[in-house]
Structure formats: C-alpha cells, structure tokens
Amino acid sequence: MEISAKMVKELREQTGAGMMDCKKALVEADGDIEKAKEVLRKKGISKASKKLNRAAENGAIIDYVHFNNRVGVMIELNCETDFVARTDEFKELGRNICKHIAMENPKYVTREEITSETIEKEKEIYKAQLANSGKPEKVVEKIVEGKLEKFYSENCLMEQKYFLDDSKTIDDMIKEAISKMGENITVRRFVRFEIGH
User: Which residues on neighbouring strands pair with residue 62, listed in sequence order?
Assistant: First the structure.
C-alpha cells in the first residue's frame, strides 16, 4: 500500500513520534493509522523502559478542580530536569492524570504501596465468598488470585484503564510520555479531595 505524506503527518500529529518512525509504523500496519499507533506505542514503550531506572528528582505539583467544585486532585509528578517539568506537554500529562484520579478515585499509586495486611484481608474475603462453592482448593486459589488482580487494577492508579481511553493504562500513558520527552517520569503521590468524603 502507498503511504502518503498526509498519512505520515496525521500519525505524527496524533503521536508526536518522528517522521521516519511514523512512516515505518504505517508500512508495518499496511496504512492503518490505529494499528500504526499501536506499533509506535509498543516501540515507544520499549524505548521508555530503558529510562525507567533513571532518577526522577525534579517535577511539579499539578492540580485539578472538577467543574462542579466538589472534587479536587493534586499530584506530585516527577521527571529528571526542570526543563521538562516546565513544558506544556508535561503539565498536560499531569492534568490528565489528575482528571483521571478525580473520576476513578484510585486508592494507591502502585500495588507495592498496599500493605500485606490489606492484601491478606482481601484474600480472606474472597475465600469466604467461595467457601461453600464446592470447588477444589487449587481452583479456589486461582479464583482468589484473579480477584486480587482485579482489586489491583481497580485500586492502583498505574494499573487503571485511562478513563478517556480504555485501550491503555495510566502506566502506558506515562511510558508514552517518557518516550516522547526522553526522561523518566513518575507519579510520586497524589491526594484527592471530595466534598463530604
């Protein structure tokens, strides 16, 4: 299939990737823009993973107050340099994550923050729910593990599906931003306020 300059330009505008990367991705995806985005995301994420171990000791406190003034969020979004922290792209990423937190109300940034007591309590609840199911112990264990994974994906910010695009998690969004901005980016912490809660 013929890959036009218009297609490359459109993909570049949507992803922020370089011209040659966009062209290669479109060739690989037979001209399908959505598939080409996936190709770029996969490649971007692999580029981003190389930056994940670098120290992110700069950044910004970014906030968002929902239009009804009943929910507000503040996050500490870290990166490696003050230069990146001041960019519109970095601030926009922070605002989008804040909006997501306002809508989805995660309890933790990552699963590593959850205490072993909380995890054990969840497991006990799941086992109690299955106590009279008559299922073998191994099957019960598998079901409990599955329910625990669901608990993580519902309560941990990094594992939640982005509320405006459920084809990616917050972790995917951050890895895409890392590959575009060329620096490690992390959410250190957040706080969510809601009237009456």
Answer: 75
Half-sphere exposure in the Cβ direction for 176 (13 Å, CA): 18
Domains and CATH numbers, the chain: 5-49 (1.10.8.10), 58-109+156-194 (3.30.479.20), 115-155 (1.10.286)
Structure tokens at 40: 């770029």
pLDDT tens for the chain, 197 residues: list them: 788 888 888 877 666 666 677 888 888 888 888 888 888 777 765 455 556 666 777 899 999 999 889 999 999 999 998 999 999 999 999 999 999 999 999 999 999 999 999 999 999 999 888 888 888 888 888 999 999 999 999 999 999 999 999 999 999 999 999 988 988 999 999 999 999 88
Whether the Cβ atoms of residue 106 and residue 97 lie closer than 8 Å to each other: no
Residue pointed to by tokens 């959505």? 34
Q: Which tokens sit at 177? A: 């931003």
Per the CB < 8 A criterion, the answer to whether 42 and 168 are in contact is no
Sole residue written with tokens 């299939």 = 1
